[in-house]
Amino acid sequence: MTSKALLTLKEASKKYGSREVLTDISLTISQGECTILRGSNGSGKSTMLRMVSGLIPLTSGQRLLEHSDIVIGYTPDRLSKLRMTSTEYLTHMGRIAGIAGRELKERIKQLHHFFNLEQSDHVKLTHFSKGMLQKTNIMQAMIKTPHILVLDEPFSGLDNESTGHLLHSLKVIKDEGTAILAAVHDPLLASQLESNTYWIRHGRLSRENIVPFSEHQIVYFELVGMIKRDLIDHLVELFPNVTYKSSESGHMIITFMYKDYNGFLPEYINKGGEIISLIRKELGS
Ligand SMILES: Nc1ncnc2c1ncn2[C@@H]1O[C@H](COP(=O)(O)OP(=O)(O)OP(=O)(O)O)[C@@H](O)[C@H]1O
Questions:
Q1: Where does the record locate the signal sequence feature (predicted)?
Q2: Closest Cα to atom 25 of ligand 1
Q3: Can you say whether residue 18 is alpha, beta or left, with left for phi > 0 and alpha for psi between -120 and 50 degrees?
Q4: Which atom of ligand 1 sits closest to the CA of residue 183?
Q5: CATH number of the structural domain 215-282
Q6: Strand-pair category, 196-201 with 204-207
Q7: Which residues of 102-111 are buried (b: 16+ CB within 10 A; e: fewer)?
Q8: For the chain, domain boundaries
């Protein structure tokens, strides 16, 4: 069964000044489907999310909505620790979205219940954990029930437990028919959302052919090491499922899948990458 198309980008391009960041992007967002965007830093993921959300204009091409009442909820990559409670914040955001009174109160209650934050609805955001803040960030995007929920790196900085809760919530939202479009750095999380995955490379969008994860494919490795940034960027181009981040101690924390073990590791060493530790992990462990 094909799902109903809600929004279509047709040959959409975006320039900042004379610099073209996105070129001829064509994509359809459909009801109840999850679309994941991947790409290296600065590849244009946030730009594309903002373009889909209607927050920035296209330079050329078309953005077509299935009907004029399509609601798009946009979640930026982080919410600041404001000196107000989640209820106060959502009341403010709800009024901006044109909801008020009893309807708004009810919706805020419903969202706190859905995200398991009822106990904290009168706690100031300054006392919220990263996971609680991220849930509030998503709640503001859902204050008017969206047809499309757009998320910019929703799992960034979350611990395993918060990541698990958020994954579960997003699956429920998707199953209820909301389309999800998210920039997600981590291929393991992307695979959990049963999504259509696309890559942005050199400004162009291409579909990633994901083979569904089977039991033995959930093994991955976490390598703590040292390597120059431009060299690891080059390796990520060669091995798209490799991700990395810097640790507080200045080391790189690199994850790669079991299938890349024989390919990635020798390349990493050849490029002068140093290994401080290498741990075999399984998804969910
Ligand atoms: N408002 C702007 N004006 C000028 N250039 C911009 C603007 N916003 C983004 N850019 C540039 O466009 C390119 C794409 O940026 P964008 O934030 O969309 O990438 P990204 O893939 O989301 O990056 P990251 O993963 O680091 O968040 C970058 O080179 C960035 O510097």
A1: none
A2: 41
A3: alpha
A4: 22
A5: 3.30.70.1150
A6: antiparallel
A7: eebeebbeeb
A8: 5-207, 215-282
pLDDT at residue number 72: 97
Name every residue whose Cβ is closer than 8 Å to that of residue 2 and which is 6 or more positions away in sequence: 30
| Listed residue (211, 203, 199) closest to 257, CA to CA | 211
Query: Which has the closest alpha carbon to 281: 248, 252, 254?
Result: 254
pLDDT at residue number 285 = 46
Please indicate whether the domains covering 5-207 and 215-282 agree at the CATH topology level: no
Can you give the length of the chain in residues? 285
ipTM of the complex: 0.97
What are the structure tokens assigned to 144, written together?
């008017």
Query: Of 47, 138, 122, nearest to 85 (Cα)?
Result: 122
- Give 173 Cα–ligand 1 centroid separation in angstroms: 28
DSSP assigned state of 153: S
Whole-number Å distance, alpha carbon 111 to ligand 1 midpoint, is 31
Do the beta carbons of residue 208 and residue 240 sit within 8 Å?
A: yes
CATH class label, 5-207: alpha beta
* Span from the CA of 174 to the centroid of ligand 1 (angstroms): 28
Q: What is the pTM of this model?
A: 0.79
Q: Which residues line ligand 1 (CB under 6 A)?
A: 16, 21, 39, 41-47
Q: What is the pLDDT of residue 246?
A: 85
pLDDT value at position 280? Answer: 87
